[in-house]
Amino acid sequence: MPSFDIVSKTDLAEVENAVQGVVREIGTRFDFKGSKCSIERKEALITILADDDMKLRQMQELLRGYMVRRKLDATALDFKDPQKASGNALRQEVVVKQGIDQTLGKRIVKEIKDSKMKVQVSIQGDELRVSGKKKDDLQDAIAFVRGLKIEQPLQFVNFRD
Fold first, then answer.
1. DSSP E strand stretches across the chain
2. Is the dihedral of CA 72, 74, 80, 85 positive or negative?
3. Are 15 and 148 in contact (CB under 8 A)?
4. According to the model, what pLDDT value does residue 43 have?
5. What is the pLDDT of residue 36?
6. For the chain (length 161 residues), average pLDDT per consecutive 10?
7. Nearest to 41 by CA among 67, 15, 61
8. What is the pTM of this model?
């Protein structure tokens, strides 16, 4: 029985390359001269430290831009609310989304079942397995899921005949 998996994985090595690109640009840009702005990554958590709100927004845009340059989906970044740090500085945590969480998985399963497609969907940890009798049904399911407004990058892998 043909099947495929729906996963959400972001290459953390490429995320690190994007963060290092932002660090280099902050070091060379004139508007960041003399500021204490920094960005660092630990596993799937990026911490941005900025002097003020304007510099924080500029660093967010730099990070999104470098993610796109590295062929990563910028929607994989989950920006948390900025917090006050020492002085007037702001600290913001950015989580790199990995895997499909339970609520999103249930939503995708419900949408596929409501569409009356001839496929079965099962949640397996942080990924979804879609199986059906015909390859065409699976291709229709991929097109349907791509058409959904999902705020996370999804990949369709492990396609088996």
1. 3-7, 38-42, 45-50, 77-79, 83-84, 90-96, 119-124, 127-132, 155-160
2. positive
3. no
4. 87
5. 86
6. 90 92 91 87 91 90 92 89 86 91 90 90 90 90 90 87 78
7. 15
8. 0.82
β-pair type (127-132, 83-84): unpaired
Asked whether the beta carbons of 117 and 137 are under 8 A apart, the reply is yes
CA-closest candidate to residue 152, choices 90, 83, 72, 88 = 72
| Domain spans in the chain, listed from the N-terminal domain onward | 3-8+99-160, 12-96
The superfamily (CATH) of domain 12-96 is YajQ-like, domain 2 (3.30.70.990)
3-8+99-160 sits in which CATH class? alpha beta
Closest C-alpha to 48, from 26, 72, 30: 26
